[in-house]
Every structure is written in C-alpha cells, then in structure tokens.
Design a protein that fits this description.
By secondary structure, the chain is of the alpha/beta class. The chain folds into three domains: 7-118, Beta-Lactamase (2-Layer Sandwich), CATH 3.30.450; 126-307, Rossmann fold (3-Layer(aba) Sandwich); 313-455, Helicase, Ruva Protein, domain 3. It has 21 helices and 16 strands. Strand 3 and strand 4 form a beta hairpin. Helix 6 packs across helix 7 (143-156) and helix 14 (316-329) crosses helix 16 (354-368).
Length: 459
C-alpha cells in the first residue's frame, strides 16, 4: 500500500484519476478522482483486478485474454492513449481517456499507474461544434471550422490570455468576438484596439489613459481602453506592431492587473481578459529581438490559429450566401442570387485576401450585376481570369502540369453542389423542417432558400 507522507493529499487534488496496480494487476491505491469517475467507493475498488473495473471494454477484453496489462503493452509500443466508454455500477456511462506508466520496481510500491481523464466535457464541446453552421459572426461547416468552433468554446470557458494568429482578412476579429460572447464576461464590455493605427506616442495614452495636463492638449483626464474594458474583454489587434516601450508596460499589466495613467503615480486595478491578434510571425520577431519573449509567452497561454479561406473552400457557398443576404438586407427590394458558374469561379480562386476579399468581390458583383443572378462575368477581373485559366486547362488535357493546377485551384461543380445540398439538408434537420428558420440560420433570404431547395429536388 502506498503511504508516503503528503502523497494522498496531492493525489486527491488531481483532476485526473490515478489507479496504482501491482504486478498481478490488482489495485493497491486509488485517488478520489478515479473513485468518482468509476462510480465506486474507494474501499470497494482496492484489491480488485483492474479489468473488472472496465468490464465490456476492448481494454478489459484484451487484458483478460493476454493475462497482462494491455495499456502497458500499448505504452511500450508507443500507443500511449486509449479512449473507451465505461459503464458504472449504477448503469451510467462515462467516456474516459486512459494511459499507463511504469513506476520504479519496488516491492513496497505499485508496479504501474493507470491514468484516467474524464472526456465528458470534451465530448460535449465536440457535439456542440460538430453540426454548427455559425458561431457568432463566423460561418462554416468545413472540418477546420468545426475544429475552430470547438477550440473557441473550450477557450471561452477559461480566463487565460489568448493569442490569435492567421493571415490578414481571415476573421480573427470575429473569433475574438465569439470568444467574448461565449464567455462568462459576455455581459461586460468588448473593446478593440487596433495597435497599428496609433503612433508610438499616442498608443500608450490610448491603452492606459492620461491625467489632465499629462501632455500638450490634454485638457481633461481620460480613461484608456484597459479601464473601458474592465469586467470584459480587450482585443489587442495587430499586437506585433506594438513598440518595445509599450510592450514593457503591457507585460506589467498582465502580471499585476493594474495600470497607471500617463501623468499619474496612482495605480488602478483592472479586471480584463486579454485577446491578442496578429498576422505576423511573432516567434521570428522574438528571435530577432523585435518582440519581447516574456510578453509573447504571457499572451499565448491559449494559442488559436484562424485558417485561411483557401484552406476551407468548401465553406465558400455558405459564406457567400450569408454575405449576400446581409448585403440585400441593406438594400431592401432587391432579390439577387449567385449562379452555379459564379460559385465555381469563387471556388477556383486562391483568395490571397481571405474572407475580407470575398466580401469585396460580392460587393463588386452587386454593383455590376444587370439582373437578378450574379454570373461569373459580374465578379472582379482577377477572379474571372482564374476561372478562364481553369477552363482553358480543362480543354487541354495533355500537360501534366495543367492537371495539377486544376486539382490545386478547382473544385468540381458536382462536389461543390453536393456540399451545398448537404448544408441545406443539415439546416432543415436542425430547424425541424422550418424553412424560414433554416433560411435565417443559413443567412439567406427565404426566396433564395426556396430556389436552392427546388434546384436540388428538396422542395
């Protein structure tokens, strides 16, 4: 039996469950988390054969058949983690992640430890994210966006600082808003500072505020963005543009949770959740001495990467329909839809400007459309040129390079249509067949939804 001083208290404060086994695979010690996960009293588990605690699982069957700990065998072979669902004595099920580790061989100690992690919350997040089409202002149903939705929901439950990375125009500000709106601070203020918009001498006052007379023109005292965001969330957009002199003061705020206005000696406590965003390579800037390493690690406690639009082209039909619906709401009386050839052209383009460029392309098409349907010829010239290039390459099937280029930039209309049809069916399923609710969920007008349903035989 393990009885080292203080060990019991330490083990019982862990979130992970721990089972200590002897060489016969009998339980010699267990912490409170493991007892809770397995739904059994501590004393009832002691001296039990490990497989009997996980009856009916593949892990237990493997262990019983082989006569040795299958988790240990997996660990030796490099397969360290195993996911399974365990039925407790009261009949309830709990999803667990398990792995094992060898302990120093000693007759007084256990032979190995089995570690358990409750995956209930993780699976709830996966369920919440899996069938989402939207999260705040974010729209998408691709695999990378479902992963991002799950990460946002997980990070929103924390108070830790977040660093958002991604290309310009990819939607980092929308991610920051979604983080705020799904957090416990959602009723508090959401404040954004575009750090690149202010020269060095003004950025400090913008962030921390200033006292009256702190500098020429400071006729009155003014609170900064940190104070304005008290009790809520502060987005430091383009954090890579912050000069070194201000980085030092940002680090102090993150460490001490207090600010000093310019021209004052008084400190003021602030309760703010920090989200920083950048399109720049901060690790490279740190290595060149352009960004403080200590500030970088303070900001990236929870790193999130926002994918580029070219990495989620299957979202383009849904994104474009949602954006077009927003534009039409600002121009009542117009009923415009995207043609399949326009969607093909959008899918063929590489989108260096990301989602922001897609918005601009649709605004351009809204100006140039001469009817109720946006065709490829109504899109910006660079998108039309890519579409024409793809068409020419399709006509010439001899060069291998042409085929490679098509595969890189072109998504077949049948595949695109299939993905849009699947999205429409999912929206109808989620709304119980209510077309008005489905149209709202998809961000399109009811007329556009009706036409799409008729097109795919879903009317």
């Amino acid at each position: 039996m393990i009885s080292l001083p203080g060990l019991r208290q330490f083990l019982d404060n862990l979130e992970e469950g721990i089972l200590f086994l002897d060489q016969r695979r009998h339980v010699v010690a267990i912490n409170e988390a493991a007892s809770r996960m397995l739904g059994q009293n501590h004393d009832n588990i002691l001296d039990k054969l490990c497989p009997s605690l996980f009856q009916g699982t593949a892990c237990a069957r493997s262990c019983e058949k082989g006569g040795h700990c299958s988790l240990m065998k997996n660990a030796i072979q490099g397969k360290k983690i195993q996911d399974l669902v365990v039925q407790r004595p009261d009949g309830t099920l709990i999803p667990l992640r398990m792995w094992a580790m060898v302990l120093p061989t000693d007759e007084r100690l256990a032979y190995c430890a089995v570690v358990l992690r409750d995956r209930t919350h993780e699976m709830q997040l996966e369920e919440a994210a899996r069938d989402r089409l939207r999260l705040g202002g974010l729209v998408g149903h691709s695999g990378v966006m479902r992963d991002l939705f799950r990460q946002i929901l997980r990070a929103a439950a924390s108070e830790a600082s977040i660093l958002l990375t991604g290309e310009s125009g990819s939607g980092k500000e929308l991610v920051a808003r979604a983080l705020h709106e799904n957090s416990s601070r959602a009723k508090g203020p959401y404040v954004r500072v575009h750090c690149a918009a202010f020269p060095e001498q003004l950025l400090e006052g913008e962030l921390f505020g200033h006292a009256r007379g702190a500098f020429t023109g400071a006729a009155t005292a003014r609170e900064g963005r940190f104070e304005a965001a008290h009790g809520g969330t502060l987005l430091l957009d383009e954090i890579g543009e912050v000069p070194m002199s201000v980085q030092v003061k940002l680090l102090r705020v993150l460490q001490e949770h207090e600010i000093e206005r310019l021209g004052e000696n008084q400190t003021r406590k602030v309760d703010v959740r920090i989200i920083a965003a950048t399109h720049r390579d901060l690790p490279a800037m740190v290595s060149r001495g352009e960004f403080r390493a200590d500030l970088y690690y303070r900001l990236r406690v929870l790193p999130l990467h926002v994918p580029a639009l070219r990495e989620r082209k299957e979202d383009i039909p849904l994104l474009a329909s949602s954006m077009l619906a927003d534009m039409l709401n600002r121009h009542p009386g117009r009923d415009i839809q995207l043609s399949n050839e326009a969607l093909d052209a959008l899918g063929a383009y590489s989108w260096p400007g990301n989602v922001r460029e897609l918005v601009n392309a649709l605004e351009y098409a809204m100006v140039h459309v001469d009817g109720t349907t946006i065709l490829a010829r109504h899109l910006p010239p660079e998108i039309q040129e890519t579409s024409r290039l793809i068409a020419n390459l399709q006509a010439d099937d001899t060069p291998a390079s042409a085929s490679a280029l098509v595969q890189r930039y072109y998504r077949a209309p049948a595949q695109q249509a299939g993905q849009e049809k699947e999205t429409l069916m999912l929206a109808l399923k989620e709304t119980g067949g209510n077309k008005a609710a489905a149209a709202e969920k998809l961000g399109m007008s009811r007329t556009t939804l009706w036409k799409r349903l008729k097109q795919y035989g879903l009317g």
